[in-house]
Design goal:
Blueprint lengths: L9 H8 L5 E7 L8 E7 L17 H14 L2 E7 L1 H7 L1 H14 L6 E5 L10 E4 L2 H4 L1 H24 L5 H4 L5 H10 L18
Parallel strand pairs: 1-4, 4-5
Antiparallel strand pairs: 1-2, 2-3
Amino acid sequence: MSISNTPTFKIERELREQGYKWIVGVDEAGCGALAGPVVAGAVIFPLDSDLEGIKDSKLLSEKAREDLYEEVTERAVSWASGQASVEEIEEIGIRPATYLAMMRAIEAIEQVDYVLVDAWTLPNMKLPQRGIIKGDRTVKSIAAGSIIAKVTRDRQMREHAQTYPAYGFEVHKGYGTAVHRQAIKDHGPCGIHRLSYKTFHPTLV
């Protein structure tokens, strides 16, 4: 079954008919990176919004993401970002750290009564929730969350590039590109690399 790249409010409207009012969509950015934090975005969107162009952030150009970030933050009922640091990723692992970032984003929104999560369900979540595979491509609130997460994290990685100019973080944002891996080989890891990842095992660097 093919998945449309144009998310809709279908699931949000179904939940609204069931009596839920504050339906938040949540997604993450940076789970698969070799450096930097993992960041989550959470968005409650008005279901009558006609804002076009919202889709999985990975399908958008950097300029389109930045433009839509401004639109989403202006038009959303509520929105927030949350993150887990490199230190937290190292201490508890990337999956729990991603859950932590998502929970922080959700908890930063005052009113939530249902949570829609891209791909996963969150452990110890007291609110009703649903994990939706490819949710960032089918559910508009989740797609909006993906834009918040991606833009927030990309901006941080551009700032880190000023501190660590040898690694090209402004280009690859910490993901494991050939250029990034070569920079690690040439210069060793820096202060925002996730040293527990196999990339940094002595036999591989």
